[in-house]
Design goal:
This protein is 45% helix and 21% strand. The chain starts with a strand and ends with a helix. The strands form 2 sheets. Strands 2-7-1-8-9 form a 5-stranded parallel sheet, with helices on both faces. It has a 4-stranded mixed sheet with strand order 4-3-6-5. The chain has 8 helices and 9 strands. It is α/β, with parallel strands linked by helices. Helix 1 packs across helix 7.
């Protein structure tokens, strides 16, 4: 079956990583691209598992070498999806989940034909703020920047294919699984597989 990309976007702290982890444990034949970033790792993050952590110079060289299918500058740091990593998973016949921001989602949508865009929303702005503060990984200045960006970014969810409100993790995870399963069963997808 031809590979399909699933772009997951949403504000920082909405639970994207947790949802992706749960879905990858329940759905077969689905890959995940680990993004590159120039930011330093947080206390609980591991290189090659959460992100590929590289310094700014290496990241900028990768941009010049056109090593990214998409990249963006976010909160004064760079984030990008490696073309080689994405191609490697597609060539294995895997559908691939990408955790990228709105700017990257537009780039992916313009580059690939088989893309499903899924936006994760918090149940409220207050819940989002509480989650950011509860995870205790950022200082107050960073939290304020993330919240300001979230307000601006939320209006972009209307051009996504699907929206999931992450009020309850299990419920949101089931909805994400249902979207992926439904996309895999689309007639156009099945006909190409036969």
């Amino acid at each position: 079956m031809p590979a399909r990309l699933y772009v997951i976007s949403g504000p920082s702290g909405v639970g994207k990583s947790t949802l992706i982890h749960q879905v990858r444990n329940t759905i077969s034949d689905i890959g995940y691209t680990i993004s590159h970033t120039s930011r330093p790792p947080r206390a609980n993050e591991q290189n090659g598992k959460d992100y590929h952590f590289v310094d700014r110079g290496i990241f900028q060289q990768m941009i010049r070498d056109q090593a990214f299918v998409e990249w963006a500058r976010v909160y004064d740091d760079f984030y990008g999806t490696s073309l080689a990593e994405l191609d490697g998973q597609i060539n294995q016949g895997l559908d691939v989940i990408l955790d990228i921001d709105v700017q990257g989602a537009r780039n992916i949508k313009n580059t690939f034909e088989k893309v499903t865009l899924i936006y994760i929303l918090p149940p409220s702005f207050q819940t989002l703020e509480d989650r950011l503060r509860h995870r205790a990984t950022d200082n107050e200045t960073v939290i304020k920047k993330r919240l300001e960006k979230s307000v601006k970014e939320l209006k972009n969810c209307e051009w996504y294919d699907y929206i999931i409100i992450n009020n309850d993790l299990d419920e949101a995870s089931k909805k994400l699984e249902a979207i992926i399963t439904a996309q895999r069963c689309r007639s156009s997808q099945m006909i190409e597989a036969v």
